[in-house]
Amino acid sequence: MMHFTCDQCGKEMVPGEDERFVVKIEAFPAQDPAQLVEADLDDDHMEAVSELLSELEDGDELDLPEPSQHFRYDLCADCHQRYVRDPLAKEHQHKLFFSKN
C-alpha cells in the first residue's frame, strides 16, 4: 500500500479515502531575448564557436547558466486550498511597521 504525507502540514493521507494534490514547480533562469543590431550580423560566429571548443579542450570551464530545478510536493485538500489562494505565502510574511520619528 502506498503511503502519502502532506508535505506542508504532515497529515497522513490514505489513498482512496483522502484527497491528495500534487504541486510541481520549475525554477529556471530567465532568458530575455537579446535585441539584434546590424553589428551582430557582421560578427564571425564560427570564430566564437571555435574559441569555445578550444577552451573546452584546454580544460577551462564554460560560464553556463544555472540548470533548471524541479520540485514536487504532495498536499492535503486543506493545504492545497491555502496554496492556490496564496502560492507565494505573501499573506504570512511578517510586515514591519516603523514609526515616523
Give an overview in words.
- The chain has 101 residues and is α+β, with helices and mostly antiparallel strands.
- It has a domain of 50 residues.
- Helices cover 27% and strands 20% of the residues.
- Strands 1-2 form a two-stranded antiparallel sheet.
- Strand 1 and strand 2 form a beta hairpin.
- The longest helix is centred in the middle third of the chain and has 13 residues.
- It is elongated and about 65 Å long.
- It starts with a strand and ends in a 16-residue tail after the last helix.
Helix content: 25-40%
Q: Using DSSP, what is the number of strands?
A: 4
- Poorly predicted regions: none
Q: Can you count the helices?
A: 3
Shape: elongated
Report the biggest beta sheet as strand number plus sense, adding barrel if it closes.
Answer: 2 strands, antiparallel
The proportion of residues in beta strands is 15-25%
The mean pLDDT is: 85
Distance between the termini: 62 Å
Radius of gyration: 24 Å
Write a concise synopsis of the structure shown.
The chain is α+β, with helices and mostly antiparallel strands and 101 residues long. The chain has helices spanning 38-42, 45-57, 77-85; strands spanning 4-5, 12-13, 20-27, 69-76.
Question: How is the secondary structure organized here?
Answer:
Elements lengths: L3 E2 L6 E2 L6 E8 L10 H5 L2 H13 L11 E8 H9 L16
Antiparallel strand pairs: 1-2, 3-4
